Amino acid sequence: MDLKEQIQSLISKMGFPEAQVAIDDEHHKVSIVIDDENVRTQLPTVLPALEHLVNLILRKTKLPAYVVDLNYYRRERERLIVELAKAAAKKAAMTKGEVALPPMNAYERRLVHVEISMNPDLKTESVGAGRDRHIIIQPTNL
Question: What pLDDT shows up at residue 87?
Fold first, then answer.
């Protein structure tokens, strides 16, 4: 049974036999679409649990971990984070001062670091600890 079939079987056993699964082996991503109101309202809770289960399957077959997206939640969240980074970068450049972003997880902070790294006039720094860890964007000449 290939990875897609294994994930499809898992989701079917969870009560969602009509779920759609797409695998992107090149980028190590799994995209799952479940058309269910309860899943849609609980995405931030359901997604990490589902990602954990998918990665348990991968670990058992000695494959590397994949990023799981459920109902395009992660893709939309990434878009919002990048837009937030761009707006904060514009503000930091205009005011010539620091701009602190809200706390984010490591993956989201990485998205900001990558986005801001494309602007040679700005730099980023992660500060804080645990759930309070966030990014500060500032001009490089500060």
Answer: 97
